[in-house]
């Protein structure tokens, strides 16, 4: 069965960096673009960014563009979210997800991880 497992979350201070990882198994990784979403307390889940298989094309939410970078290692079936200059408003549970053709709409994603908590203190 398909599994997406996130790791790397934690408690950091504003301005710090954090790198999240997502290990994928049970799917043909080459067929999927990978996305990151987040859900802050009391808020809807929101799109963070997405990367296609080749890694050439990425897409980011305005709130994170320039601070967050998505990359993937296709040989290891892994995707990463490098988060720099973190802000308290980045505090959320972060999820990785797989999609064949989707973009920013979470409904277009087929598989989801369980999430990893990121907390940024001021």
Report on the structure:
With 122 residues, the protein is mainly beta. 0% of the residues lie in helices and 50% in strands. The chain is built from no helices and 11 strands. The strands form 2 sheets. Strands 2, 4, 5, 6, 9, 10 and 11 form a 7-stranded mixed β-sheet that branches. Strands 1-3-8-7 form a 4-stranded antiparallel β-sheet, with no helix packed on it. A hairpin with a 6-residue loop joins β4 and β5. The protein is globular, with a radius of gyration of 13 Å. It starts with a strand and ends with a strand.
Quick tags:
122 residues; mainly beta; 4-stranded antiparallel β-sheet; 0% helix
Q: Radius of gyration over alpha carbons?
A: 13 Å
Q: SSE order in H/E notation?
A: EEEEEEEEEEE
Task: Note the main sheet.
Answer: 7 strands, mixed
Instruction: Report the average pLDDT across residues.
Output: 95
Distance between the termini: 40 Å
The number of distinct β-strands equals 11
* DSSP summary: helix tally: 0
Name the shape in a single word: globular
Assembly form of the protein: single chain
Share of residues in strands: over 45%
Q: Percent helix among the residues?
A: under 10%
Query: Poorly predicted ranges (pLDDT <50, ≥5 residues)?
Result: none
Structural class: mainly beta
């Amino acid at each position: 069965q398909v599994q997406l497992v996130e790791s790397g979350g934690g408690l950091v201070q504003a301005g710090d960096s954090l790198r999240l990882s997502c290990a994928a198994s049970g799917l043909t990784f080459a067929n999927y673009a990978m996305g990151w979403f987040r859900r802050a307390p009391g808020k809807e889940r929101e799109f963070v960014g997405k990367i296609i298989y080749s890694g050439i094309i990425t897409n980011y939410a305005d709130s994170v563009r320039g601070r967050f970078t998505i990359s993937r290692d296709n040989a290891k079936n892994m995707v990463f979210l490098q988060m720099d200059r973190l802000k308290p408003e980045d505090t959320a549970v972060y999820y990785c997800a797989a999609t064949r053709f989707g973009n920013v709409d979470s409904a277009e994603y087929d598989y989801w991880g369980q999430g990893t908590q990121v907390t940024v203190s001021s």
